Amino acid sequence: MIHTLKILNLLLRFILELILLFSLCYWGLHVQLGVFMQIVLGLGLPVLAAVAWGLFISPKASVRVPLFVVLFIEAILFAAAVLCFISSGFVTFAVIFGVLAVVNRFIILKWKQQGFDT
After folding, report:
1. What distance lies between CA 92 and its chain's CA centroid?
2. Buried b vs exposed e over 5-23: b needs ≥16 C-beta within 10 Å?
3. Which end of the chain has fewer surrounding CB within 10 Å, N or C?
4. pTM exceeds 0.90 for this model
5. Whole-number mean pLDDT of the chain?
């Protein structure tokens, strides 16, 4: 049973990561700064977030940093996603998304699912 819950928690994590990227893309494509900036932000922000995630946060990150740095970068990315949702008018979804992200991260730490030494 606990093994199934751990798998579901990691699945939730993956879904939250995809939603994070979507929020940055959606906000960037709808910002009122002209078509060029919409394209730059709509494609650039998710790419930057994905690169930061792959470099520092991913369990197979190429740059190993202390856990507090991982948590700090992750907090910035998820906070940016929440702000993008709020700015786009999805306030209720932003709150639910933010709460799920915090709870999910807590469970990942509690169950030692990421492989960092705390």
Report:
1. 17
2. eeeebbebbeebbebbbeb
3. N
4. yes
5. 94
User: For residue 117, which of 109, 83, 3 has the smallest C-alpha distance?
Assistant: 109
Residues in the chain: 118
Residue 109: both structure tokens together: 């730490």
* DSSP assignment string, the chain: -HHHHHHHHHHHHHHHHHHHHHHHHHHHHH-SS-HHHHHHHHHHHHHHHHHHIIIIISTT-SS---HHHHHHHHHHHHHHHHHHHHHTT-HHHHHHHHHHHHHHHHHHHHTT-S----
Nearest CA to 113 out of 22, 15, 12, 19 is that of: 12
Structure tokens at 83: 């702000």
